[in-house]
Design brief:
It is built from twelve helices and eight strands. It is an alpha/beta fold and about 325 residues long.
Length: about 325
């Protein structure tokens, strides 16, 4: 665990001392705040952390935001808090009427458990019945280095939630995204993809389970999926991009057991060098809304800038193989 703490510290420092280069891209003024008015956005895992911060910013930009969450009660609480925050902000900063470009944001809560393909299918059926358009899908939810468990369908939890659940979700919503084009798909990955490989011989980690490797494998799968999907969607006016948010202070690392003696140092480092959720969410918001990336697809971003990928994340044959196997695993192909 000391090694893990050192790895997290190195990742933070390797990001270029965020404390020094920190920037917050929150839009200034209500004119910018109307940028997403009239657009519908789905954010998975939106009741806390990065997802909540992403939803808050998109609401501020005027979007109709669907909070797609496993725990409906917690999602309703988050939605109520976001509405209160929005009301307080509007009271402090008078906005022009919606017709003049002011925000017309709205929050909708829907239940989605990415560890259950049955839940994913039910969620998509509800969205397709109730939402006439879908402008942006943000695959944000994730499980990080949890003890070995399986999803409802028997998949290793991190691979099942982080990759397979979102793979099925995206495929079932593709037609609505195409009908709403120009539209965008945003996939949240991690810099830790660098430590992963796609173990096709044991995707469910039944022979050997290393929670760090399995997380990195799932994040590499996110990148391979996004790039392959971007290739398949050429000419449709639906773009797909993938990002890493950097090191962010969220509850995603709740399964990490930091040694008692190392905790004070770890907490000091995290508060000094890690991003806040609002800062970490900026690349997701940028890819979902910015005119600067209109038409850009198949790219990897960090801190709102395009970044290079390791060769293994650009291997087209591995991406196609993963796609084909994923289709069978989630039941798209028998």
């Amino acid at each position: 665990m000391v090694a893990l703490s050192s790895a997290l510290l190195a990742a933070a420092l390797g990001g270029g001392l965020w404390l020094v280069v920190r920037r917050y891209l929150r839009p200034a003024g209500w004119v910018t705040a109307g940028l997403m008015r009239g657009k519908t956005v789905i954010v998975t895992g939106a009741n806390s952390g990065l997802g909540r911060a992403t939803a808050a910013e998109l609401l501020r930009l005027g979007a109709r935001v669907i909070l797609a969450c496993r725990d409906r009660g917690r999602a309703e609480e988050a939605a109520a808090e976001l509405r209160r925050e929005q009301a307080l902000e509007r009271a402090r900063t008078p906005a022009p009427p919606a017709a003049e470009g002011g925000p017309a944001g709205e929050l909708v809560v829907k239940e989605l458990d990415l560890a259950s393909l049955r839940s994913v299918r039910a969620f998509c059926q509800e969205v397709l019945q109730e939402e006439p358009r879908l402008d942006v899908l943000i695959n944000n939810a994730g499980v990080f280095q949890c003890p070995y468990t399986k999803t409802e369908d028997g998949f290793e939890m991190q691979f099942g939630v982080n990759h397979l659940g979102h793979f099925l979700l995206t495929n079932l919503l593709l037609d609505r995204l195409k009908d709403s084009a120009p539209s965008r798909i945003v996939v949240v990955s991690s810099k830790l993809y660098k430590y992963g490989e796609i173990n096709f011989e044991d995707l469910n980690s039944e022979q050997n389970y290393n929670k760090s490797f399995c997380y990195s494998q799932s994040k590499l799968a996110n990148i391979l999926f996004a790039r392959e999907l971007a290739h398949r969607l050429r000419g449709t006016n639906v773009t797909v991009n993938v990002l890493h948010p950097g090191m962010v202070r969220t509850n995603l690392g709740r399964h990490i057991n930091i040694p008692l003696l190392a905790r004070p140092l770890f907490h000091l480092v995290s508060w000094a060098l890690f991003k806040t959720p609002a800062e970490g969410a900026q690349t997701s918001v940028y890819l979902a809304s910015s005119p600067e990336v209109e038409g850009v697809s198949g790219k990897y971003f960090g801190d709102c800038k395009e970044e290079d990928l390791l060769p293994k994340a650009m291997d087209e044959s591995i991406a196609r193989k993963l796609w084909d196997i994923s289709e069978v695993m989630v039941g798209i192909l028998k």
